Amino acid sequence: MENRFIKKMRRRIVKNFLDTIFLAELKKIQPLSAYALMNLVHRKFGFLISAGTVYALLYSMERKELVIGEATANKRIYRLTQKGNETINILLKSKEELFQYAKTVF
């Protein structure tokens, strides 16, 4: 039971930070497709997320002007915008503060 609870909690944390995860990965590697982002989450965190979750989030991130999607011959790829790059840079600079906050919660 404990192991199942921890797995659910990990999944919840990843889903809640999925936008930040995508921004961080796009900062490292651009461009990426939605499929590549789904595979990345699977490799890094050990579970699959639905295509609907990924596409809905990417669409929301496009509306917020954090990423831009570009159609290629056979897929849509995503890149950071200037606003997306600035956002992830702020988060990366603040990661120690965020880690301290998480420690306070636990």
Q: Could you explain the architecture of this structure?
A:
With 106 residues, the chain is mostly helical. The protein has one domain: Winged helix-like DNA-binding domain superfamily/Winged helix DNA-binding domain (Arc Repressor Mutant, subunit A, Orthogonal Bundle), CATH 1.10.10. Helix content is 70%, strand content 11%. It has a three-stranded antiparallel β-sheet with strand order 1-3-2. Strand 2 (67-71) and strand 3 form a beta hairpin. The longest helix is centred in the first third of the chain and has 15 residues, at 2-16. It is globular.
What attributes characterize this protein structure?
106 residues; mainly alpha; Arc Repressor Mutant, subunit A; three-stranded antiparallel β-sheet; 6 helices; 70% helix
Number of domains: 1
Structural class: mainly alpha
Distance between the ends: 20 Å
Strand content: 5-15%
Run of helices and strands: HHEHHEEHH
CATH superfamily: Winged helix-like DNA-binding domain superfamily/Winged helix DNA-binding domain
Largest sheet: 3 strands, antiparallel
What's the Cα radius of gyration? Answer: 15 Å
CATH class: Mainly Alpha
User: Residue ranges: pLDDT <50 for 5 or more in a row?
Assistant: none
CATH architecture: Orthogonal Bundle
Please work out how many helical segments DSSP would assign.
Answer: 6
Query: Into which percent range does the helicity of residues fall?
Result: 55-70%
Give the strand line-up of the largest sheet: 1-3-2
Q: What's the number of extended β-strand segments?
A: 3
From the structure provided, what is the oligomeric state, counting identical versus distinct chains?
A: single chain
> What is the overall pLDDT average?
92
Broad shape? globular
Question: According to CATH, what is the topology?
Answer: Arc Repressor Mutant, subunit A
